[in-house]
Design goal:
Strand content: under 5%
Shape: elongated
Distance between the termini: 71 Å
Largest sheet: none
C-alpha cells in the first residue's frame, strides 16, 4: 500500500512540475520583455545554489607514517641493514 501511495504522489508531483513549466513558458512568450524574468530566475539560482568544490584526491587524504619517511634517506635507521 505504501508503494502505491508513493507512486501516486510522485506522479502527481511530476504532473504539477510539468504544468508549472508549461505555464512559465507560455507566460514568457506573452511577455514583452521575455528575457527579464528568466534573467531574474537565473540570478536567484546563482545566488542560492552554489556549486560544491570537488573532494580532495585520495593521495592527499591518506595518513602517512612520518617515521618511515624520516628514515628513508638514512641507511643506519632502515630496518634490515
Amino acid at each position: 500500500m505504501e508503494a502505491l501511495k508513493a507512486t501516486l504522489v510522485l506522479i502527481a508531483f511530476g504532473a504539477g512540475v510539468i504544468l508549472l513549466c508549461v505555464w512559465a513558458i507560455l507566460a514568457l512568450r506573452r511577455s514583452k520583455r521575455s528575457l527579464a524574468p528568466v534573467a531574474g530566475m537565473l540570478m536567484l539560482l546563482g545566488a542560492f545554489f552554489t556549486a560544491d568544490p570537488p573532494p580532495p584526491p585520495k593521495s592527499e587524504s591518506i595518513a602517512r607514517d612520518e617515521a618511515d619517511e624520516d628514515a628513508a634517506g638514512d641507511p643506519d635507521k632502515v630496518d634490515g641493514a
